[in-house]
Amino acid sequence: THGGVLYGLLRVDDPQVVYRHPGIPRPDSSDHLLLTLAGGAGQRRLILAAEGPGFYAPLGLGHGLPGTAVAAAWQPTASGYTVEFRVPLGLLGSPPLLGLNVVDVGDPVERQPRARLPVDGGVRPLIHRPQSLESRLGGLVDAPGRTWVIDREGWVRAGAGRGAGLGDDPAGRARLDLPELATLSDAGGTARLGDLLLAYAPVSWQGQRVGSVVVEQRIDQLLLSRYGAFAELALATLGLFGLSVAGLLLFASRLAWRIRRLGRETGAALDERGRLLAESLAAEAASGDELGDLSRAISGLLGRLQRHTRFLHALPRTLRHEISNPLNTIATALQNLGAESSPAQRERYLAGANRGLQRLEATLNGLTEAANLDEALQQEEHRPLDLRELLATYLDSLQLQYPERRLLAALPAGAVTVHGAGHRLEQLLDKLFDNALDFTPADGRIGLGLELSGGQAQLRVENSGPPLPPALQGQAGEAMVSSRQPGSGAQHLGLGLFVARRIAEAHGGTLALGNLADGSGVGVSVALPLARPAGRAAG
After folding, report:
1. Gap between the Cα atoms of 468 and 445, Å rounded
2. Given this model, what pLDDT does residue 370 score?
3. How far is 291 from 285, CA to CA, in rounded Å?
4. Which of 99, 231, 368, 512 stands 20 to 30 A from 353 (CA)?
């Protein structure tokens, strides 16, 4: 078919060809083709009988046809003749139906039809192969093998592919009527035909099967394709495995290099005598993985060791200074006492010696308290207590003890419950107020405040007086660090805030020291976690 027209070519083997005689009116008096067209206007029958070679017009039986709608040509051959004809597809109806019979007249004298092939003159569906379906099927088939599209009766409507198979080229085969296909169900399946493997799938339209798709492939080609796919998969797997191994080796090499660098820097933080040369590590300090955590933990350990080392370095000088002053006082008092005979003067010298002994005892007590503090704090039993009530009671006692001092308080109305040891928190307050009393002038003020912030109790002690020197702001709260000036007459071992900070840390809190915003004094802040409700803690 082309352009809405059906073109046909028929080769007939006939040892005696009888042409139509123009003097005989009967249309079936010669060899001819009988075409039956089933269009919308009913069946039409045409006789293609020629008076000789060449073009000729068909003879209509029963109904007329448009003048040149159907045309034919007759050509003799060595074994018979060929007939070419042209019929518009519109004359065949929808679906197109066509009947084709060859009628043989053996006796040129009697001119009676003696044979008709096929015997019945019924019409059959016109089987044609749409080029669009052929092209689309050819674009889908790219593997060795063939693909067929057949209708319900086995007629091939499209075919594509290459390679040996059923024996016919898909472009030229008309019908695929294999017994193996007849055994397959409407749901589809597979069948083996010699060394061929056939796969069958039905094509349905509006709930009815209108055709099938048959795919054939040689078993050896199928196995070869499977082996090829397996080889590609194996190569891809080996490639991925190689990349994984290379990535692991690269990762392990970099990890080993990072560990060695961290180890070298950690080893360089100490000299051969065990003295600290660095307070922190730069290697892996900014990393977010486990090595970064390890580096920061080592830096924290080095910082604590450095603070302890400074404490040990400062201890001899501080002890020498703190012990020398009371010893000098005692030695001077005893020397003068031996040379003095006046009872009044001897009493004065004895009082001076007693003051020196008291200062020496206070120094030794402070050192003993600091040395045993951590062990004592670990053995303390913490219980829920109202921090507001403790501060109020402590402030009343402090006011009675120092009536001349101006003490200010800002406490919340409700209870503030923390977990801790009450006498240790009072010891912390003693250290904070001792420090504030030492630096507050006689006409100055000391303030005590308590507030809740972010699940913590914020305790603050402020005092007016000289601000904290910038050089000591980062070291306040460490042992043997004090801002008192030599010769001030007050004990200045620098253990007060150190003890307070250790007590705060033992209660899960922190201690911070800084100057007031207006520069009028110093403030100490202690943050303690609030006690959780009993039900929440149990859950």
Report:
1. 17
2. 62
3. 8
4. 368
- Spatial neighbors of 144 by CB under 8 A, at least 6 apart, are 161, 162, 163, 217, 218, 221, 225
The answer to whether residue 446 scores a pLDDT higher than 80 is: yes
Alpha-carbon torsion, ordered 22, 24, 26, 29, to 10 deg: -90
What's the rounded mean pLDDT across residues 352-371? 71
H, E, C per residue of 359-383: HHHHHHHHHHHHHHHHHHHHCCCCE
In this structure, which amino acid lies at residue 124? R
How much is the pLDDT for 142? 64
Name 432's Cβ contacts closer than 8 Å, sequence gap at least 6: 461, 497, 500, 524, 526
Among 484, 436, 437, 489, which residue's Cα sits nearest to residue 462? 436
Please, what's the b/e burial string for 475-486 (b: 16 or more CB within 10 A of its CB; e: otherwise)? bbbbbbbbbeee
The per-residue pLDDT of the chain, averaged, comes to 79
- Separation of alpha carbons 55 and 73, rounded Å: 4
Question: Which residue, 27, 61, 25, 15, is CA-closest to 42?
Answer: 61
Helices (H) and strands (E) in the chain, counts: 9, 22
pLDDT value at position 248?
94
Q: Where are the alpha helices (DSSP H) in 17-114?
A: none
- Distance CA(283)–CA(74), nearest Å, equals 101
Which is nearest to 129 in space by CA: 149, 158, 86, 108?
Answer: 158
Closest by CA to 311, choosing from 472, 481, 477, is 481
Q: How far is it, in rounded angstroms, from Cα 327 to Cα 489?
A: 14
Token representation of residue 356:
């020196």
Give 278-319 pLDDT, tens digit per residue.
Answer: 888 888 888 888 888 888 888 888 887 887 777 677 667 666
Contact 7/86 with Cβ under 8 angstroms? yes
Q: What is the pLDDT of residues 448-472, one digit of tens each?
A: 999 998 889 999 999 998 888 776 6
Contact 405/468 with Cβ under 8 angstroms? no
Q: Which amino acid is located at 344 in the chain?
A: A
Q: Which two three-digit tokens encode residue 533? A: 């409700």
